Amino acid sequence: MGRFSLYNTNIDFLRWRKLAMIWSVTVLLIAVGSLLVRGMSLGLDFTGGTVIEVQYPQPMEIPKVRETLAKAGFSDAQTQHFGTSRDVLIRIPPRGGQGNAATLSNDVLHALQSAEGGAGVTLARAEFVGPQVGQELVEQGGLAALGALAGILLYVMFRFEWRLAVGTIAATVHDVLFTVGWFSLFQIEFDLTVLAAVLAVIGYSVNDTVVVLDRIRENFRKRRKGSAQEIMNLSINETLSRTIMTSFVTLLSVIVMYFFGGVVMHGFSVAMIVGIVVGTYSSIYIASATALYLGISREDLLPRAKETADDRP
Amino acid sequence: MSTPYTLNQYPWWKYLLIGLVMLWGLIFALPNLFGEDPAVQISGARANIAVDAAFQNRVAALLDADKLSHKRLELDDGRLLIRFPDTELQLKAADILKDRLGRDYIVALNLASSAPGFLRAMGLNPMYLGLDLRGGVHFLMQVDMDATIKQIEDSYVDEIRVQLRNEKAQYASVGRAASGGVQVEFKDEAERDKAAQALRKNLANLQQDEPGPLSLRLTLGEPEIREKRDFALQQNITTLRNRVNELGVAEPIIQQQGSDRIVVQLPGVQDTARAKEILGATATLEFRLADEENDWNQAATTGRAPINSRLYKDRDGQPVLLQKRVMLTGDSIVDAASGIDQQSGGPAVYVTLDGKGAKRMEDGTKGNIGKRMGVVFIENKTETKRVDGELKKTAYTVEEVINVATIRDRLGRRFQITGLDSTREARDLALLLRAGALASPIEIIEERTVGPSAGKENIAQGFRAAAIALLVIAVFMTLRYKYFGLIATAALAANVVLLIAALSMLQATLTLPGIAGIVLTMGMAVDANVLIYERIREELRNGNSPQAAIHAGFDRAFDTILDSNLTTLIAAIMLFGFGTGPVKGFAVTLSIGILTSMFTAVVGSRALVNLIYGGRKLQKLTV
Predict the structure, then answer these.
(1) Does A193 contact B523 at a Cβ distance shorter than 8 Å?
(2) Who among B446, B512, B515 is closest to A129 (CB)?
(3) I want to staple A301 with a disulfide (CB 3.0 to 4.6 A). Which of A57, A220, B296, B530 is the partner?
């Protein structure tokens, strides 16, 4: 048994909870600091503007594209390769005059096609987002994240206990801040798909935490001896094999998505990868340590008097 | 602990139930295996244009004449669908058919499921692909409501001036107030009170207040503003729908979003620039007296209009001769609404003109009672065409007579158009009049265009990622849990089938993030199995017999699975609630995936384990 020798482990995880807390707080301070200082490299979905992805029949040099665009009056355009050297991504920041913003992608395409003597350049993708839409998205995204957190808090409070619920939320907020901070620190573009990934991280992180909580509750009810810390340690050890297995398998599928899902899915995959890794750490440390700091005890998790006694064998 | 062998056995009906669910999944997922044919879809541009068997023969003859090989022609519900072996033929045929059939028919490109007829007859369809997967254009448009209200107030400024003059009320100035509404300044209070009384009578719909001792402000009431906003939106939707029809899109979506936005989705549109040009056209109206001296049909056959006249066509393609002189243009129209004629009880359109327009209308009609008058709808469009390798933008107009009616009386500020065939026609005419007159400024606030080849690439990459993920997970799970890993893989495959079946049945839109959702669900679906198997291992380590360990493993893991999946579901539902387009697609696949994975992992894999291990004596269990 135990090919990964994760069984019968008896690691005193919570002995290092102070260290873990210091580490987490430091990392989160860096994340928040980066968010305040560097900000986010927000994608088109949030800032507004125009993105055009074109494909050339042959490899194309960026300076040449830039020159063509400058001649056509798009000197503010940013140009880069996207995936291969035949694909070019052009970004144009939002412009004051709203009137012709929507036809911008046509004009850019025409300029590029004319420079190439007509045919050849094809449009792969064009996106235009007006500034008002981006603003709304920021608000709605924040609301969705808060809504998800509130919903989960209520569920865990109802199914478990408030200290564990607070611990779960602490772990989840930790994961979200870490992931968002990662995108800020490395200035990876944060777009709509990344936002979706962050919300999926919320779901995943809670999923992971709840499994540990479930075992903590079970052990508190089953074992009459041992301190809260001992029982929590035991529960984490017992679920360790599962925690690592599940994270690993989910991680595998997301890594596959990073390499085979196309460039469009890169941001999404990176957010998921970061989220799953910290989510695994936080479900071991943050959730239980927080509940422990809040002074959780066996009595808090025993079935209430009116309910029948533990029905487990 | 003694363990009966019957511990891990399901009653026969449970297997049957699971079998039925899987059969359901396979049947609903089946249409997705067949792919899609490039097709051309033809429908009548108007209700009276028949698309029938005779028409089908005509199209078949046209196709044969140009040696365009096609797979099949299908007549279905007033639409003719022609399937082609490849996209090149499809595009060529669409161009030729558009040319030969003229404006009476809408020729649209489409992708038609190539699933066999009996599946389609059963109402089974493949998943509905989002724009990012099939290519096409998505627009979000916003109607500028402030400008709409401003336009209406501007027309009231004229109107009030005329009213005051008629009532001989002395005023200093009339203008739009910066804070909204129309403000009139007077020289003395008596004049103001006189004006206020007159306006209260003649323009009862306006609310009055007195911001200063010598001023009077008139504002639109809240219900009227709401009504005007609604009008503006409906009018824009109607105009867009007409234009999209002209564009030839097989399954367009044009719908209201929120109070002032319109979503337009045009799947499969290849020439996105042209789509924008057509949607962005502006329209105007002209009222012209009819040419009563010359024969309209004769002019049509010779193709030459007499001097002083112009030859038009009406919406049914019939010739109409109208005078060259324009009596009135659309910007004089304040409102146009459909209703019922008080006298005849037939459908009617009520038109309201502004002060200047009313004057011109009176002058134009008083000597022409008994004669006819036509309304011309003019759309200004631009078209970009390739001329000698250069892209050139040309502006052109499309003119069409939308109504010819006999002048019964001297027409003034308010008049009505009767003699319409149906209430539907009245409604259409009213909408067209408004479209040509009160075009509310509309702007595109979001555009997402995906080229058709990029869409194909997205599908290919998405499915490759899903397939590789499935394979990697299968290998890993089998290495880790041996036979149980194989069972988990079978459950996972079943999960994918059920997920695809559910998406096909609901006709939910599959997007690229949606595929990401499927891949993510596969990773998370394994979790339930991992929880169960780890629990079984634990029970075995605690010294339980294999059968008891299996039983307890499934039993105890269930609570955990339920808790952890429900919390993820909460996050997915939140995502659905706020998300738009692609993100919604992600939320949908994630939510459905969570539900199907709970079924396959808990019930499905349990059934397999029971079938394999249940009811026999096990000495050893390799998990």
Answers:
(1) no
(2) B446
(3) A220
CB atoms within 10 A of CB B515: 27
Which of A291, A310, A301 is closest to A21 using CA atoms?
A291
Closest CA to B615 of B7, B2, B3, B11: B7
Instruction: Give the up-direction half-sphere exposure of residue B388: CA atoms within 13 A in the CB hemisphere.
Output: 0
**CA dist., res. B490 & res. B587, Å (int):** 25
Assigned architecture for domain B5-32+451-613: Up-down Bundle (1.20)
- Comparing C-alpha atoms, which of B504, B511, B513, B531 is closest to residue B597? B531
> HSE on the CB side for B132, CA within 13 Å?
22
Q: What is the rounded distance in angstroms from the CA atom of residue B277 to the CA atom of residue B379?
A: 12
pTM for this entry: 0.77
| Topology classification of domain B281-441 | Gyrase A; domain 2 (3.30.1360)
| Whether B575 and A196 lie within 8 Å, measured CB to CB | yes
Q: How many residues does chain B have?
A: 623
What topology is assigned to B36-114 in CATH? Alpha-Beta Plaits (3.30.70)
Chain B residues lying within 8 Å of A239, measured CB to CB: 534
A268 interaction partners in chain B (CB closer than 8 Å): 513, 516
Verify that A177 and A222 share a domain, yes or no.
Answer: yes
Q: What is the pLDDT along chain A (313 residues), one digit of tens a residue?
A: 334 456 667 888 888 888 998 999 999 999 999 999 999 888 888 888 888 888 888 888 889 889 888 888 888 888 888 878 888 999 888 775 544 555 677 788 888 888 877 567 888 888 888 777 878 878 888 888 888 888 888 888 888 888 989 999 999 999 999 999 999 999 999 988 888 888 888 888 888 888 898 889 889 888 888 888 889 999 999 888 888 888 998 899 899 999 998 888 899 999 999 999 999 999 888 988 898 888 888 888 777 654 444 445 4
Q: CA B80, CA B62: separation in Å to the nearest integer? A: 14
Residue B91 CA to its chain's centroid (Å) = 23
Helix segments in B367-451, DSSP class H: 423-437
User: What Cα–Cα distance (Å) separates residue B294 from each residue in A280, B317, B623?
Assistant: 86, 18, 95
What amino acid occupies position A22?
A: I
The CA distance from B574 to the nearest CA of chain A, in Å, is 6
